[in-house]
C-alpha cells in the first residue's frame, strides 16, 4: 500500500498513486457522506466478545465492538471507519449511540431476570474533549436504571498523551459514580508507566498483539510476565486480550493471569450468540472445555 498514516493524516509513502489508495479515498468520502443517515437508519450495531476467567472457564462479561452493516458495502469493521470519524468528530455521536444501545440491552437482560455480567464499551480519545461526557454517562445509567458497574468503560491508553489532567479528572469522577475503568491497549503507547502513576484505573487491559510484533517470543513472554507481576503489586486486576492459541493460553495460566479475551476462546459474536454462550457455559468446568464449545 502506498499510504502511510501519520498522526491521522494519510501520506503517500512512495509517491505512487495506486488503485487501493484511490479506493480508500472514495471509501472515506462515502463514509462521511453516509454517516448521519446510517446512524438514523440504525446501520451501526455491536458484537459482543466474551471475556473469560482462566481458572474457572466462566464468562465474566463482554466487550461491545461496533460494526457497520452498510446497505451496499456489507459488513464493515471499525478499523476502517473509526479513524475517519475521529478526524471529523462524528465519533462522539456514534459512541453515544452504541453506549445507549448497550444500556438498553443490559436493561432488557435485567427485565428478563437473566444472570447479568458487565459489558464494556470503548471510549475514543476524541470523546474526552466533550465537556459533558461524565454528565452523559450519569444520565444514561439513570435513564435505563442500570447499575454503573455493569457498563464498564474502556479508555485507550494513548488518550493520556493528549490531555493527562483531563483523564485523571474524568476517570475519578466516573469512578465516584460507580463506573469501572479499564485501561485499554496498555503498554502499546509511549507513556504507559507515567499514565499508570497518575491515573487511577480499575483494570489493566493488555493487548497481546503489540507483543507479537517482535520475533523474540521469550522476550515478549518476559515482558508480559513482568506486567502481570507489576499489576499484582499494584493490586490491579489484569485482562489479556488477543489470545489466539492454546500455547498462549497455557503461558498466561502459568504466569498467573486471571482474565482473558481472544479468538482462541471466542470471536466477537452477535448478541443472541453471546446469550447462548452464557447459557452453555454454565455447564463447562474449564476454559479449555469452554473453548471447545466455542469452536464446535
Ligand atoms: P480494542 O478496543 O482494543 O478491541 C480489540 C480488537 O481486537 C477488536 O477488533 C477485536 O475483535 C480484536 N480481537 C479480539 N481478539 C482477538 C484475537 O485473538 N486476535 C486478533 N488479531 N484480534 C482480536 P475490532 O472489533 O476490529 O475493533 C478494533 C478497534 O476499534 C477496537 O480495539 C477499538 O479501539 C475500536 N472500537 C471498536 N468498537 C468501538 C466503539 O464502539 N467505539 C470506539 N470509540 N471504538 C471502537
Ligand atoms: Mg477495547
Ligand atoms: Mg484493546
Ligand atoms: Mg486494540
From TrEMBL:
Residues 28-282 form the EAL domain. It comes from the Bacteria. One of its GO terms (molecular function) is cyclic-guanylate-specific phosphodiesterase activity. This is Diguanylate cyclase (GGDEF)-like protein. It comes from Pectinatus cerevisiiphilus. The chain holds residues 409 to 704 of 968 of the full protein.
Amino acid at each position: 500500500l502506498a499510504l502511510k498514516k501519520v498522526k491521522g493524516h494519510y501520506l503517500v509513502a512512495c509517491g505512487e498513486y495506486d488503485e487501493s489508495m484511490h479506493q480508500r479515498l472514495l471509501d472515506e468520502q462515502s463514509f462521511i457522506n453516509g454517516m448521519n443517515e446510517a446512524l438514523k437508519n440504525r446501520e451501526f450495531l455491536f458484537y459482543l466478545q466474551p471475556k473469560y476467567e482462566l481458572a474457572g472457564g466462566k464468562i465474566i462479561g463482554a466487550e461491545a465492538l461496533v460494526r457497520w452493516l452498510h446497505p451496499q458495502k456489507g459488513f464493515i469493521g471499525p478499523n476502517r471507519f473509526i479513524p475517519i470519524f475521529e478526524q471529523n468528530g462524528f465519533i462522539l455521536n456514534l459512541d453515544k449511540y452504541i453506549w445507549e444501545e448497550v444500556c438498553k440491552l443490559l436493561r432488557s437482560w435485567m427485565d428478563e431476570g437473566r444472570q447479568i455480567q458487565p459489558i464494556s464499551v470503548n471510549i475514543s480519545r476524541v470523546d474526552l474533549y466533550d465537556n459533558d461526557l461524565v454528565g452523559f454517562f450519569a444520565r444514561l445509567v439513570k435513564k435505563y436504571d442500570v447499575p454503573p458497574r455493569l457498563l464498564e468503560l474502556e479508555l485507550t491508553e494513548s488518550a493520556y498523551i493528549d490531555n493527562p489532567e483531563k483523564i485523571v479528572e474524568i476517570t475519578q469522577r466516573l469512578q465516584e459514580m460507580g463506573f469501572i475503568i479499564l485501561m485499554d491497549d496498555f503498554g502499546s503507547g509511549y507513556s504507559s508507566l507515567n499514565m499508570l502513576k497518575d491515573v487511577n484505573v480499575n483494570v489493566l487491559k493488555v493487548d497481546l498483539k503489540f507483543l507479537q510484533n517482535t520475533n523474540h517470543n521469550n522476550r515478549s513472554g518476559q515482558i508480559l510476565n513482568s506486567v502481570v507481576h507489576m499489576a499484582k503489586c499494584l493490586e490491579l486486576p489484569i485482562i489479556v486480550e488477543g489470545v489466539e492459541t492454546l500455547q498462549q493460553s497455557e503461558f498466561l495460566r502459568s504466569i498467573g493471569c486471571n482474565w482473558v479475551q481472544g479468538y482462541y476462546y471466542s470471536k466477537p459474536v452477535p448478541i443472541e450468540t453471546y446469550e447462548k454462550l452464557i447459557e452453555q457455559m454454565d455447564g463447562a468446568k474449564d476454559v479449555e472445555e469452554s473453548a471447545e464449545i466455542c469452536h464446535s
